[in-house]
Structure formats: structure tokens, C-alpha cells
Amino acid sequence: SEHVKEPSSLPSVLFTDLEVSNKNINVGQSENGTVILDSPIEMDTILHLSYKNNSFSIAFSAVDYTNLHENVYSYMMEGFDDTWKTTKVDQHNVSYTNLDPGEYVFRVRYRENESSKRIVISPPFWQTTLFKLSLTLLSLALLISGILFLIRRREANYKRLMLRMEKEKLETSIEAKNSKLMFFAVQMAHKNEILTNIKEELKDNSDVSANKTGKLINKLDRELKNGDYWEDFNIYFNRVDQDFVHSIQKDYPALTSNDIRMCSLIRMNLSNKEIASLCNISSRGVEQSKYRLKKRLELVKDEDLSRFISQYKSQE
After folding, report:
1. Cα–Cα dist 238/64, whole Å
2. Are 96 and 72 a contacting pair, CB within 8 Å?
3. Which domains does the chain have, with CATH numbers?
4. Which residues pair with 38 in a beta bridge?
5. Fewer CB within 10 Å: N-end or C-end of the chain?
6. Other beta carbons less than 10 A from residue 211's beta carbon
7. What is the per-residue pLDDT across 98-140, written as a single tens digit (0 to 9) for each?
8. Is the pTM of this model over 0.70?
9. CA atoms of 63 and 115, how far apart (whole Å)
């Protein structure tokens, strides 16, 4: 009988076909926006799939025409399968579904011969390292921005608190000084009123000699006309209402010293009677002084003098 010669090498396993989502893939064909095969599958060493193409089937075959009833393959997807698996008789393909993005190596073995194919499944953009890094940097930037915002807001709140406390302290100080200034002014007015009353009583008193009465009246007049306490008043007033006198003199240079004094007394919200006692003039004299002051301040007829002075701010 004729002796059959054994082949010189084991049969090779060839990759013959690729299906993605139950569609046969040809060279150059696009699937879900991705060209999977640039050349025939048996020549491509790496299959590049997108995350949308992660369900596929690979077909393979061994060139062997002997023992057809034993045509069984072993296969394994490294990165997914833990052990080798075996196909059914005459099964020439293997399917995988919903593989996670990553790198795999599909190995298929027939007898002792083995072939392999690298498979790379690219992730969606939100799972890429670049996107995760960008997201991390963005989150870090937002966190830093949030921290800086909180720090700035806290600093701003602290500054506002300090300003409010300083303002309240200043207002308290001004209020205390105003009270002292008002007390000082009222004392001056009361003193002048008493001196004036004494002067009138002396004029009407016939029991005292005319010579002695005249001397006493002259002494009272000198006291009433004494300007020393006005200097003290002006110093104290400027401490309470800083820059008022300087500003109104600068804006209205035609004002006299008596006008400035009247402005200060009006700004203290004193009555005509109190002003009259302080200045040792009659209430009629106060009205006339206010009338002249209003003209020098160039106010219209209906404009209120007291309101203008109490709300006055420099025109600069």
C-alpha cells in the first residue's frame, strides 16, 4: 500500500473575517464613524475599535484537510478571559459583547499552532486620560477659585465690619463732642442772659450811686463783648465738625467772621433765642444777620438757610 507522507510543519491558523454589531466589515469600511480595517484582517496586526464597536465576532480557520472531524480550536481573550476555552466541532468564529475600553490580545490555537491579534478598544472622550486630567485641573481650578472667593469675601466682610465699627466709634465720639459743645454753648448763652439781666436791673436800681452803677455796667459790657470764649468755641467746633469752616470760607470768600460764627451756630441747630444770648444781640438782630448771610451765600428766596447749612458739603 502507498504510504502518506506527513506534512513538514503544523497547519497555520488564519483570521478570515470580522463582524461588528452583526455587520461584516470590509477593508476601508466605516462603522460608527471609525474605519476599522485599513488592510485585510489577516494582515492587520492590531484592530482598533471604538467603545461603540465593542461587540464583535472574529472568524478564523486552519489550513488542514486531514481529520476534519477533529477540527476544534482553543481560544482566549487576554484581558477578559481567565482560561482557555474550546470551540464546538467545526466552529470557526468567536463573539464578544460589550467589552470595556482597553487593550486585549485574542489568541486562537489549533493543535500546537497559535495565532494572535491585538485589539484596542478606545474609550469615550470622557474616559480618556486627557479628559480626566483636564477635569481634575478644572475641578482644582474651581476649588482654588472658590477658596479665593471665600477668602476675599471674608476679607471684604472684615473690612466692612472694621469700617462700620470705626464709623460707629466716630459717630459716638462726634455725638459726645456735640453734647459737650451744646452744653458749652448753652452755658455761654445762660451766662450772657444772666449778665444782661443784671445790667438791666442795675440801670433800674436807684439805690446805687450813678457813678458806681456806671462802672458796674461798663464792666458787664466788657464781659459781654469779650471774644475770648468765642475763640474757645471755634476751636471746639472745629474739632467736632472738621473742615466745615475751612470749606465754607473757601467756597464763599465774601463771608465775614460774624457770618462764619452765625453758620456755626445754625449748624448746631440752636434757636434764635439761644443765638441772641450767645451773641448778645436781640432776636431781631439774629433775623437780620441770617438775612445778610443768606444773600452772601447766594440762596434764592424760598431756599431754607438752616437746611442749606446743616446739609452743606464742600463744592469741590
Report:
1. 117
2. no
3. 13-124 (2.60.40.10), 174-310 (no CATH)
4. none
5. N
6. 8
7. 999 999 999 999 888 899 999 999 999 888 889 999 999 999 9
8. no
9. 13
Cell of 191: 451766662
Q: What's the one-letter identity of residue 237?
A: F
Type of residue at 161: L
Tell me how far apart the alpha carbons of residues 279 and 272 are, in angstroms, rounded to a whole number: 10
| Residue 28 pLDDT exceeds 70 | yes
